[in-house]
Amino acid sequence: MLSFEPSSTNPLTLLLAQVLDHEDAETHSLTVRAIDTSSLFDDAMIRLIVEDKNEPSEIERIEKPDGTTLGSGESLTVREMAAGGAIVGRVVATDQDSGAWGRM
Q1: Which of 81, 88, 97, 104 is least buried, going by the fewest C-beta atoms within 10 A?
Q2: CA dist., res. 65 & res. 24, Å (int)
Q3: What is the pLDDT of residues 66-103, one digit of tens each?
Q4: What angle do CA 64, 87, 61 make, to 5 degrees?
Q5: Angle at 97 between CA 91 and CA 103, to 5 degrees
Q6: pTM of the entire structure?
Q7: 58-63 and 41-49: which strand pairing?
Q8: Which residues are CB-contacts of 69 (< 8 A; sequence separation ≥ 6)?
Q9: Domains of the chain by residue range
């Protein structure tokens, strides 16, 4: 998850070793240990909070009123003078976000 940038001086720089996704884990905890040449050491706990970002929703498919999937290049149709509220089609979409950003 994290790595250190090699350095012969202080401070050492912490670098991400991989992409972190808020939806996989909101926080990570780790222990950092500094050891000197005589094996004396000190530990510090670090809590890393992964901020959520609003990622785009994904349209999985568009369905016709009969439930069949609209194919590439096809169009939805509606009859002239159809009543208000008539179902023209359905959009099936997902959003991996949580909380307010997960609502569609």
Answers
A1: 81
A2: 35
A3: 999 998 888 998 899 999 999 999 988 888 776 777 77
A4: 35
A5: 50
A6: 0.54
A7: unpaired
A8: 61, 62, 63
A9: 2-49, 55-104
